[in-house]
Amino acid sequence: MAMALFSPTFSFRISTSAPQRRRRRCFVQSSQATVAIEAPSSSTTDLLLQVKDLSAVIAESKQTILKGVNLTVRHGEVHAVMGKNGSGKSTFAKVLAGHPDYEVTGGSIMYKGLDLLEMEPEERAIAGLFMSFQSPVEIPGVSNIDFLNMAYNARRRKLGLPELGPIEFYGYVAPKLELVNMKTDFLNRNVNEGFSGGEKKRNEILQLAVLGAEFAILDEIDSGLDVDALQDVAKAVNGVLTSKNSVLMITHYLRLLEFIKPTYIHIMENGRIVKTGDISLAETLEREGYKAIS
Ligand SMILES: Nc1ncnc2c1ncn2[C@@H]1O[C@H](COP(=O)(O)OP(=O)(O)OP(=O)(O)O)[C@@H](O)[C@H]1O
User: Cross-referenced InterPro entries, in alphabetical order (predicted)?
Assistant: First the structure.
């Protein structure tokens, strides 16, 4: 059943079905040629995520949104996805997270050597995939610290590690609050309830820091942030980046990419990645608009 409050992290609390993975084999794989430019190949042991010829429709209307996406992400890389409004960026992110609004109709996604499309959203989260949404959801009646503690322990349980009690967990989370420049009282407030837009984004990055995700998908974390908040959020993202984990961020603006340096920039157009390059691609875009690179 589709749910209003989808998030792989929140799925620890609210279990979902994942229609996208079960139905995908009922469709013939798209044979449309894609124009994606793959990142240069290196050792396959570095591979974190490999998306091949991914196509997806909206579950309800069957309207095709993704039309053959190819993307390779290795450990330690930062990928930025840019593109005009409506080109399919958020849909791609949500399909990676296992959002039930979409059905995969072709292609494959391998994550850490596993078939991601065979995994439930919560299994994806436990396997280290984190998604920050454009509009983070509010969870009335659930305090931020309880939510974080529960999500953190759920992952630890699956990894065979001992759970942390409230006091130990407070000791773990407190330094991470500093990383995102959030006051302690945010821990006792209900998840995102009454938070400003910027506070919600900081809270998303706090979740990322707490969960220690290996692959973070950040959908427009820069939207609605003032300059200071943008720097705080970028500093926090940089603070959680290591040579072992990777980030896929969706953005419209060069300003974010000046703080979080991308390894590759991809341009999405009409449900496909049509161009891949370095920061100069975003600079051209900023100067001349999409007509310069379409
Ligand atoms: N659940 C849905 N129901 C109806 N239409 C949808 C749904 N999800 C995506 N779409 C449509 O698919 C297209 C791609 O949407 P998507 O949100 O992926 O674009 P985007 O590139 O992220 O855009 P933006 O830059 O404006 O955030 C849009 O035309 C959108 O209206």
Answer: AAA+_ATPase, ABC_transporter-like_ATP-bd, ABC_transporter-like_CS, FeS-cluster_ATPase_SufC
Distance CA 49, CA 212 (A): 17
| ipTM score over 0.85, yes or no | yes
Write down the pTM of the prediction. 0.84
Dihedrals φ, ψ of 64, to 5°?
A: -80, 130
Domains of the chain, earliest start first = 10-292 (3.40.50.300)
Report the alpha-carbon distance of residue 226 to residue 232 in Å, rounded: 10
Q: What is the pLDDT of residues 135-180, one digit of tens each?
A: 788 888 999 999 999 999 988 998 899 999 999 999 999 989 988 8
User: In angstroms, what is the span from residue 219 Cα to ligand 1's centroid?
Assistant: 13
Residue nearest to atom 7 of ligand 1 (CA): 58
Q: How far is the CA of 20 from the centre of ligand 1 (A)?
A: 17
